[in-house]
Amino acid sequence: MSAIHVDREVAIQFTNVCRYFGEVKAVDHISLQVYDGEFFSMLGPSGSGKTTCLRLIAGFEMPTEGSIRLYGAEVSRTPPYDRDVNTVFQDYALFPHMDVGENIAYGLMVRKVPKKERETRVNEMLELVRLPGLARRKPSQLSGGQRQRVALARALVNHPRVLLLDEPLGALDLKLRQEMQIELKSIQEQIGITFVFVTHDQEEALTMSDRVAVFNHGKIEQVGSPAEIYEQPATSFVAGFVGTSNILSGGLAQQLTGSPDLFSIRPEKIRMSPEDEENRSLSSADFCMVAGTIRDVIYLGVTTRYLVEVDGGGDLTVVQQNLDPVPGDVVGARGNRVALSWPRSANRRLIAQEKSR
Amino acid sequence: MRSKTQSPNERRTPLTLKAAAAMGLLFLHFPLAIIILYAFTTEEASFRFPPPGLTTEWVGVLFSRSDFWNAFGLSLQVAVVATLMALVLGTLTAAAIYRSAFFGREAVSLLVLLPIALPGIVTGIALRSAISLGDFSFGYWTIVVGHATFCIVTVYNNVVARLRRTAHSQIEASMDLGASTFQTFRYIVLPNIATALLAGGMLAFALSFDEVIVTTFTAGQQETLPIWIFSQLVRPRNRPVTNVAALFVIMVTFIPIILAHRMTSDTATH
Lengths: 357, 270
Fold this sequence. Notes:
The complex is a heterodimer of chains A (357) and B (270). With 357 residues, chain A is an alpha+beta fold. Chain A is built from 9 helices and 18 strands. Chain A has 2 domains: 2-241, Rossmann fold, CATH 3.40.50; 254-349, CATH 2.40.50.140. In chain A, helix 2 (100-109) crosses helix 3, helix 2 (100-109) packs parallel to helix 4 and helix 3 (115-128) packs across helix 4. Chain A has helices at residues 50-58, 100-109, 115-128, 144-156, 174-191, 202-208, 226-231, 236-241, 250-257, and strands spanning 10-21, 24-35, 39-43, 65-70, 73-74, 85-88, 162-166, 194-199, 211-216, 219-224, 246-248, 263-265, 271-274, 287-299, 303-310, 315-321, 337-343, 348-349. By secondary structure, chain B is mainly α. Chain B has helices at residues 15-38, 57-63, 66-99, 105-117, 120-133, 140-165, 168-176, 181-209, 213-218, 225-232, 239-268. At the A-B interface, strand 6 and helix 2 of A face helix 7 and helix 8 of B.
């Protein structure tokens, strides 16, 4: 998927960027490229440096070291108001003393765009975010979802080349959030500019992005398409943060894969069946196979999650889809003996990391 | 969200509490009522209750006296100029304290608040010594500067509280949308702190208008209205006139305070 970006223009280029706050290395030697027109997500737990990266692009922070380029131009020392970049803030940051129309027109007003043109463009934006006719409302009279749309319209009215979104969906409830995810994505496709989206929600990042950068402790662990990040996690952090993973090492890895390195196996890649004479420990060239005892069963609706204690020590989490319309699967009761099998290709060797901090 | 059930403090107040509140109010306002009443008495020199009769002639007597108008004019001028100075300096101080986190920030904040906590007599002596030392002549400007020291506090307090309630992301959003520092101040910061400025300014005005202690130390030959009233008390023949003047001071200071109070409580729930 990333191959299609090769001949695209680079929108944002970080070269060895650091941002320290005293002793804290919020951003620690990060290099990355975001391509023009891309929906790029920065994913990570809080304190991982993703928001600081966004603020570095916006110009609210200056890098301690390194260079930041926007469409080729060095901007590390350029103030926010001279950058062709706009931001949707986490708390929306709407101006409470202005109505919706004035909020959206603000960027045009300070740039002295004539009043007539301002009006047309505000209406265009209201149309785009599907809030026509609300121009005279005050922000305090809007719902959370509407405020979100106003913030989006206000940031887009200047026609920036890059839109930065700082966890904009965090305050919305689940259903609204899913709606907005789809809508954001479609707006991005419609106007075709670069979106940089900061989130701690891995599902959100996978759903919306062309590419995802996974942040941890001020560094990037992996950059790739959602499928690459999910199917081929590079480190144990990525394997654990994006979805859930069985991380194998040492003896268990040796027993199951034939190598003592660090491995990850996604729980849904493992097939579970009742144990019998034939399938007991019949590992082959293509499949890993192991027998074990079910220790825990968690019913999740679409799927059921099992914790299986493998013979010879160690636990594996297994997720099976609930295909049987009749409840009460006999295979899946606690204490049952089961055989687990998965293709060897599902074993994903991870880059060993020093235990950082 | 407002719940439909009554909150506990909407229950009926016990009678004893009501009586205590009434006593408190009486204690606070009885002397004021006396002043107001005896501003209209027909008796010239002594207090007698009840007043033998009521008249408004003292208002006319007061208004015809040029020394009153001079004192009133001076007080008004001093209060306005001191308030303006306080508005500028108080806002700048508040902005500096709010924006930056530097070593000793809390100490500076305390130093700004100190003039209002210190007894006026200390401020007065300090100012008098400083002014003599600097070889300035006592007069209009020394009064203004003296008043500004405590007027800054009310403005600073109001503005800093408002700034703390204002989301910093609004300022960032403004700059992000292309506004320069000046435009951000003009369109975002100023509207946000406008009512705080007005409220702080009105309190400052009221404080300055009836100030006596610091003024006695910083004034030269001039008489502000409160000092004029004070000097009139030694002449018992004019007592009702003094009361009328006091009533005048009450009105001039009370109205801004009421307005300031309304303005800050209106926006507190924003």
